[in-house]
Interferon alpha inducible protein 27 (Rhinopithecus roxellana), 113 residues
Amino acid sequence: MVASAFTSSAVTRVAKVARVASSCATCVLPLVVAVGAVPMVLSAMGFTATGIASSSIAAKMMSAAAIANGGGVAPGSLVATLQSLGATGLSGLTKFILGSTGSAIAAGIARFY
């Protein structure tokens, strides 16, 4: 009962965000491009599907994180999260939520201009 109420509430909130976002078509395109560019940017940084590329920004980040943590990268750290995203990409739901939320924020800002 509680889980279904939470899910229903979350779906309703996402639907409201999507409705607000769709009201500002000029705000949506840049955010769609930004969300779509995430895999390309991660790859350019060195977070690839086959692991962290040597001599890359990602390798330097991993080295710094390992030194700070006594020899290993902590699970859930920024480096671990970025590597996970680089290896698997963003899920469809994550893309939708990021795009909708960003669009709603941009639409809210656009109302002041």
User: Anything to note?
Assistant: Residues 72 and 110 are 44 Å apart (CA to CA). Confidence is low (pLDDT under 50) at residues 1-6. The two ends are 44 Å apart (CA to CA).
